[in-house]
Amino acid sequence: MASMDVTVMGAGVFGLSVAYACAARGAKVRVIDPHGVGAGSSGGLVGALAPHVPENWNDKKAFQFDSLIMAEGFWARVAELSGRDPGYARSGRLQPIADARTLELAHQRAETAKTLWQGKASWTVRPRSEFDDWAPQSPTGYLIHDTLTARMHPRNACSALAGAVEALGGQIIIGDAPTEGAVVWATGYAGLQALSEERGKTVGNGVKGQAMLLRFAAQDRPQLFADALHIVPHGDGTVAIGSTSERDFDDSKSTDIQLDEIHARALAAFPVLQGAEILERWAGVRPRAKSRAPMLGGYPDRPGHFIANGGFKIGFGMAPKVGQVMADLVLDGQDAIPEGFRVEVNL
């Protein structure tokens, strides 16, 4: 009999969340990663847990909504078990409204949010004059304020998840180790490449992103979103800015003029950040499944093996629910994976 019930290959946010959910149900769990906890795209800087627009509701948006609502309790329990702060806060978000048409849409979405978000969060249109200098300027004089958006410190969150798995009796192994029991492949970009090679066609790929960390104290302020940029204040007195999306790249970890351009755009949109010290520049490759949705379910032609991949830009926001549904599948054979998230969609 195997000494482990579940082996998770990959210590990014999907792998660790699946391991944590399984361990929380009493399973004996081993996580293996040759590079370390949060060594891939989960070790980035931004940590924006931003919801989809509250309209044209579908399984993907509903799944993400459920996960974002679960997040507060999920991360609080992870922090309690690990003794480590994952940096979670449901801080909300402000977005400028560019023109009359966008303002009309924002009001419509405020109405649909009342139903779709079930009274658990709000999406409202508010005058810019209600806010201080932290808020972005808006051509219409109005901002979208949602209370569902949350923040996460990616590296701290991965560390806290690993600590929670260990607190529940699980193993975190950096390097090589044998797999035992059910095997969950949460190996990110490399996993999508391997699966594409196995299937002889593109199942997914990687999209490089670049981000920047500034020293600026705005711990209790909402996130900002303008000019396609996320501005995320973290609880440690830093602010993250990101990110680029690059399909063609030679060096997955290099930063370049594209990040300088993002920095310049951020300062133009948010002058309050002028003069803030740059603490770190980061680049990494995010796993993007062909469907653009998370890729969850059984591994093709490998009984007892499973896939949890394709978090792309929304991995941390999806992680609590991904852990739950994968634990349901791996431990109990209960399949609650939305149709659009299934592995077969990408094959």
Automatic annotation (TrEMBL):
It comes from the Bacteria. InterPro entries: FAD-dep_OxRdtase, FAD/NAD-bd_sf. One of its GO terms (cellular component) is cytoplasm. The keyword Oxidoreductase applies. Pfam families: DAO (PF01266). Residues 5-329 form the FAD dependent oxidoreductase domain. One of its GO terms (molecular function) is oxidoreductase activity. Keywords: Oxidoreductase. This is Oxidoreductase. It comes from Actibacterium pelagium. The lineage of its organism: Bacteria, Pseudomonadati, Pseudomonadota, Alphaproteobacteria, Rhodobacterales. The gene is dadA2.
